[in-house]
Every structure is written in structure tokens, then in C-alpha cells.
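Hi U.,

Before I forget, here's the chain from the pilot set. I'm dumping it here mostly so it's searchable later in email.
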Amino acid sequence: MKVSLLRYKMASYFIHSVFCRSVFCSSLFRFFALLWLSFGCFDDVEAQPIPVRVVQENGMWTLTRDGNPYEIKGAGGHVHMAHVVATGGNSLRTWGIERAQHILDSAHELGLSVMLGFWMGHERHGFDYDDTLAVREQFKHFAAAVDRFKNHPALLIWGIGNEVDLFYSNIRVWSAIQDLAAYIHQVDPHHPTSTVTAGLDSMEVHWINTMAPDIDILGVNTYGDLPSAVSKIKIFGWNKPYIITEWGPNGHWEVAKAPWGAPLEQSSESKYETYLERYTQYIAANPLKSCIGSYAFLWGQKQETTESWYGLFDVANRPTRSIDALEQGWKKGVALSGSGPRVTSIRILDESMAPSPSAGNQESKKGVQHSISQRYIKAYGGQRIKAEVQLLEPSSESYRFQWKILPEATNTGAGGDFEESLNPAALRIKGSRSPQAEIDLPSAEGAYRLYVYVVDEQQKSGYANLPLYVLPKAMNPAKHQLFRWSKPSLSSPSYLQ
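Structure:
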């Protein structure tokens, strides 16, 4: 049974506004009136699901919803839902069932569908698939969620497990996934099942095919390897439809690193090109006629290696350039509502150390060391450096700038495991609100990262960051090795693969 909230709110307002303002309306009357109202506002029928099917015709797989073709233009996450709609998206993906009722209800009000995820236990987190009691309790927990949400009109697909194959060895996890998929097929004829793997591996495809045949759709989380995954999915033996359930910039494990191990992150402009290229060429193009859509990662913001690596929104919840790319792809050529700042890099300004194309790495009298491409720098504790943000278009008078230095993350996990947010180093930054800034570096030795954010009048954000290593003040610059890194090409968004 469901409550007609609109009818309840309107009638409640009427009782309070008309009757309960009267001196003759006692508290007892109000209590019984609202009690009657509550019971009277229950509908006589259960919520009706919207049927979802996967169908194959002339060698092409299609997802249908209420009988109509439904291409998933999805966002991984459940915040900023109205912005998904404004950008041209139609679906959300969750990884678990926390707050599922609220997410499904909110999505339905906005016309969005939901791929509802079940966070199956991970071996790497200590879950033992040889423990029959634990496996059974997990099944009962998620079966109850199926019974509860199977008729919700926002439900699109069941997502049974996310990256359970990451660093695992016990293939019985696939039997547990099969048990739940079979139960869903038994009690819910309206929604297909899926499971999601970390990247694409031929053995995982084999185990899903043989041990979990009730899985209707394969979800693949893939980043820099997206072109390869799309080309190999049928070769590896998957002949049903698939969804790219996570995709975005190059992963922090896929990129080049500074000599001290800090991964080199793409700027917001480079990520914009990456999102646009990967969506148009490998998802929307659907070269194998088996892709029924995707969920871009991450619709929100999180600390994972850096505070900006995966979020489609920045740390202040402002939309970034990558959302411009999704809007272009989802709306198929419709003019953008407005482009955000086009930030390409951070440049260190010190003419006494500026390298020539043939000079290799240089060292200034001040002791700053850097690569030719300035993809990272080394300097000395307490030293002052001058930095400038690089943009593809001239800086607007309406732009606002924010510079800061954070320590390099040392609490990094795997598979998106939680990481604590980092606090900015307490520094003197002259010109922190302008395209150029003079920054007094920390005195403590260690790895840091210099960030710049550029925000326009629409509250859209562009950004870049630069790994830096602070050396002890007393170190003799002449005795320290210099480093070099190749210059990235902005025209090739996959340059860090």
C-alpha cells in the first residue's frame, strides 16, 4: 500500500488552516481528524512496476522500458539528481541499498530510473564464501530488499555485487550471485539482473556464464582500458547485453608517476576530452551492438588518490568540465547550456630556471627543480615559487581563482575504498584569488600537490594540480638528481594510458 502524499498534504493543510484555527477545535479533534486523514489517503492498490526487458533483434541487444527502447544515459551516484536531468541523463546507479527508498522515490519524481545495487561481501574485506551461514544470511538480507522494492516504478535493473572479483580467489562468490539472480527471476518478472566486474577478464566472463547463468546483463567498470574492454567482450565469450557501469578519466593506477610515486592527474580540460571521446566512440557508437548504456563515474565528489580525480563535481559541489562532455553526448549535439573554464595545466614561473626545448631539466639559483613539461616539480622547504594557471581561452574578469597545497595522500585504498579527506597545508599564498600566485612552500620535507580551481559566474569549475616534492632546506641542490618527464598532448586524451 502507498500513501498519496500530495492528497495528504493538501487535506492536512485544509484541516489546519480552516478548522484548527477555530477556538472550537480541540487538540483531541485535531488528533482524530489527522488519524482519519492518514488512513483515508492510502491507495487501494500496490505500486505498479514499469516492465523492463532486454531483447535481441537482428543481432542487436536493446533495453526496453514500458515497451519502448531505453538507452541508459546514467550517472553513478545519487546526489544532484535534478542536475542529471538538466544534463540530459535518465538514470542513476547505486552500489548499496542504504537510503534506497528515498533514492527511488526522489528519482521517480524527476523521471529518473535506478540501477539498484546490492553490495555483496568482498573477500578482500574478510567475507568468506565458504561460510554457509554468512552466505545464507547475506542472501536473506538482499532477498528481503528484492521483495520490498521490486514493484517500485523507478527500478530499472538489479545490480548484484560490485567488483567482487577484485583481489579474490574463491569462485563460490559467483554461486552466491546466481542464487540471488535466480530468486529475482522467480519473484520479479519485470526487471533484469546484472553483476559488475572490475575491468574485463576472460575467466570472470567464463565463471559468470557457467556459475551464474541467471545474470542477464554484464556490468563492466573500466577507465583507461575502455576501448580494449569493448573490443574484447565478445571474444571473451559474453554474448548477452552489457553496460559500462563505471567509466571516466584514466585511473590512478593506469597513469605515469612522478619519481616519488605520485600519479599524474589529468586537468579538467583533458578529462573533458576523455569523457567526450570515450562516450561518443566506445559507448554511444555501440560497435558490437550489445551495449545498452553506461553510468559515468562519479556523479558527486570523493577523495580517491586526490580530491578531484573522479568527481564530476569539485570539492565545493560545483559542476566541472566533464559534465559539459556528458551533456554534449547525452543530448547528441544540442548546444551546451554554457561551457565551464577550460583549464589545461599549472605553469611554474621562474625565468631563471625556465627550460629551453633542448636544455633538458634546469635548476634555478633558488634551487627549484622541475620537469620540462612541468608535470611535477621539486623544490626546497620554505622556498617561494610563482605559479600560473593555463587556460585554452583568455581569462574572464568574472573568473574566481583558488590556490592551495594539500599533502599527497598516503591512505589510498583499492576499488574505491573509503579515504579520509585531506586538510590544506597552512601556507602564505600571495595572489590566491588571481591567475598567478606566489606560494611559500611548506618547511617539512615530503610529497605535496599544488591545486588551482577556476570558477565562472555560472558556478562551473575547471582545475589542475601538480605533484611537488619538498626537499630538506639543508640539502645541496648541486648534489640532487634532476628528473624529466615527457610532455602530455592535450589533443590525445588517452596520453597517460
